[in-house]
């Protein structure tokens, strides 16, 4: 077998089918007879093989063929042949080099659950061979005879390919292994794959010593019990083992189907058993000043408190923290300010932030709306003082019937007219503009952007059908929204973060039909911090 061992290939196929199926959810209605809308299995039974300390566990709780049926059902009659061809190519690609065919060798026996776990970062604890992660894949079987025939065929192929096979028996379970993969059939229900026999032996021990397995871990049970939506998949992350984060101990992510897309609910177990009630029962009024064309929008209340809590839960060495830090640095360099000190600290009421992509492909504009308060007034005075220190003038600028305040600086530039004209001309560089509107103060990075914000109440993001559909599956009360209009912001985000192109390629079936993504936090209850992400899916015009 090639480097892509079989157990990895099987997991990849299952995940790919989940993403492909997600691409067709938008055609489904609430009256769909497909039972997956009501969730898959009740709970991941294969967790009995996984040790408590496992850093990552992923469970698919529905047979991949049922997920594939979503895609074929969703496709128009003329597109079904192409969809079927795409599915076949993906299966063949991931099983390439294994000598196996999904439909012939796997489909006849594969059951309703696939659980993949990283059992340990170093399963043999041998410092001489560096870290050796342990990988375990557990599948249920609906036909014990066919699954046994599959294992026999699989090992026959490995022997013919020249692999050295080892046979063993442990606790009455037959183990077969080569240099890269080991398998076992436990009873007539489970088929186990691992990257080493020691990982399989540990899995069998976990079943017999129940206090060792994941099903009896309090954090895992709390994650499962706090994610009440019907589930077709569950991910569990031991954050302490993954990143050394001491504030968030673990994170559970449950996937469920919605007639408009895919909903991921999260439950993060913290180290403090406290409760925090979410602050908002209705969408933030500041959203009225964000244009409907906004590519990215963030809205909530008490930005000062939110930022203090959010930044405190992010360890500084992970990818998300670095992505956020890069975004903040970009905006800070444009405005010449420190966001956390000069803006976040005084925003105690409602706020809304939007990214406005430009049609000409140039750097996107930003709009920030903040509710007025005594602290806000002092903060604005401080911002004006910073602008003056940087050599900008603070003055009124006419914009239609409205006057706005701009931070401007005059610069000389060579004239492009004839030689008889003065050799230089004066140009006004605008670093930022702001406007006073009712109970809000609006900031923007350009005159064009603030003009869009001032006109937004006639066509705001809050009133757009796309945004309303994107927030409909999320619960209330909540702490506000992070909303991404994917078609509008994709080009801008790809330029800003090249790594996104790799993510899009890996999740192509999902991103090809992604209309939007919305995230919301539901506060904290007894130390469990809850949130949700909704992937709004539908026909995207390219």
What is the fold's blueprint, element by element?
Blueprint: H1 6-22, E1 56-60, H2 64-74, H3 80-94, H4 102-106, E2 110-120, E3 134-141, H5 144-160, E4 166-170, E5 173-177, E6 182-186, E7 190-194, H6 197-208, H7 218-225, E8 233-238, H8 239-243, E9 248-258, E10 261-270, E11 296-301, H9 303-313, H10 319-335, H11 339-342, E12 350-356, E13 365-371, H12 374-389, E14 393-399, E15 402-414, E16 424-437, E17 440-444, H13 447-455, H14 465-471, E18 481-485, H15 486-496, H16 499-506, H17 508-511, E19 514-525, E20 528-537
Antiparallel strand pairs: 1-2, 1-8, 2-3, 3-7, 4-5, 5-6, 6-7, 8-9, 9-10, 10-20, 11-12, 11-18, 12-13, 13-17, 14-15, 15-16, 16-17, 18-19, 19-20
Number of strands: 20
Proportion of residues in helical segments: 25-40%
Note poorly predicted spans. 1-37
Which whole number gives the mean pLDDT? 78
Assign the structural class, choosing from mainly alpha, mainly beta, alpha/beta, alpha+beta, or little secondary structure: alpha+beta
Main sheet overview: 20 strands, antiparallel
Taking all Cα atoms into account, the compactness measure Rg is 28 Å
Q: What general form does the structure show?
A: elongated
**Number of helical runs?**
17
Beta fraction: 25-35%
Q: State the separation between the terminal residues, measured CA to CA.
A: 39 Å
């Amino acid at each position: 077998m090639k480097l892509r061992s079989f157990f990895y290939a099987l997991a990849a196929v299952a995940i790919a089918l989940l993403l492909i199926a997600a691409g067709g959810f938008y055609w489904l209605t609430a009256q769909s007879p497909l039972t997956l809308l009501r969730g898959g299995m009740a709970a991941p039974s294969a967790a009995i093989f996984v040790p408590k300390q496992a850093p990552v566990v992923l469970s698919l709780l529905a047979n991949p063929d049922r997920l594939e049926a979503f895609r074929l059902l969703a496709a128009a009659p003329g597109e079904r042949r192409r969809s079927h061809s795409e599915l076949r190519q993906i299966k063949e690609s991931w099983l390439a080099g294994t000598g196996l065919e999904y439909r012939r060798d796997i489909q006849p026996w594969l059951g309703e659950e696939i659980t993949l776990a990283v059992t340990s970062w170093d399963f043999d604890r041998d410092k001489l061979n560096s870290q050796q992660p342990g990988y375990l894949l557990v599948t249920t079987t609906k036909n014990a005879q066919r699954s046994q025939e599959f294992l026999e065929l699989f090992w026959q192929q490995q022997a013919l390919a020249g692999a050295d096979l080892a046979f063993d028996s442990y606790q009455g379970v037959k183990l077969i292994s080569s240099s890269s993969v080991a398998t076992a059939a436990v009873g007539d229900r489970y088929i186990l794959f691992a990257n080493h026999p020691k990982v399989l032996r540990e899995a069998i021990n976990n079943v017999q010593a129940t206090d060792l397995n994941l099903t009896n871990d309090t954090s895992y049970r709390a994650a499962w019990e706090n994610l009440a939506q019907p589930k077709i998949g569950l991910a569990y992350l031991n954050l302490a083992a993954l990143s050394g984060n001491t504030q968030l101990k673990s994170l559970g992510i449950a996937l469920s189907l919605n007639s408009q897309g895919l909903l991921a609910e999260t439950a993060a177990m913290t180290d403090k058993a406290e409760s925090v009630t979410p602050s908002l029962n209705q969408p933030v009024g500041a959203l009225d000043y964000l244009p409907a064309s906004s590519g990215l929008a963030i809205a909530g209340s008490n930005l000062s408190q939110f930022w203090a809590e959010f930044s405190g839960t992010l360890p500084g060495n992970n990818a998300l923290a670095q992505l956020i830090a890069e975004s903040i640095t970009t905006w800070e360099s444009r405005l010449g300010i420190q966001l956390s000190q000069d803006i976040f600290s005084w925003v105690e009421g409602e706020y809304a932030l939007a990214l406005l992509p430009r049609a000409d492909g140039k750097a996107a504009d930003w709009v920030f709306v903040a509710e007025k308060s005594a602290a806000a007034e002092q903060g604005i005075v401080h911002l004006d003082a910073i602008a003056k220190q940087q050599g900008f003038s603070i003055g009124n600028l006419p914009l239609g019937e409205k006057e706005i305040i701009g931070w401007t600086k005059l610069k000389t530039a060579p004239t492009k007219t004839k030689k008889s004209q003065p050799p230089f001309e004066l140009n006004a560089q605008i670093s930022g503009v702001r406007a006073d509107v009712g109970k809000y103060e609006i900031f923007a990075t350009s005159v064009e952007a603030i003009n869009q914000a001032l006109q937004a109440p006639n066509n705001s993001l809050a009133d757009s059908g796309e945004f309303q559909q994107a927030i409909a599956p999320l619960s209330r009360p909540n702490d506000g929204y992070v909303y991404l209009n994917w078609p509008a912001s994709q080009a801008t985000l790809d330029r800003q973060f090249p790594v996104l192109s790799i993510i899009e390629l890996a999740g192509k079936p999902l991103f090809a039909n992604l209309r939007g993504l919305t995230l919301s936090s539901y506060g904290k209850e007894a130390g469990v911090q809850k949130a949700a992400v909704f992937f709004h899916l539908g026909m995207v015009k390219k």
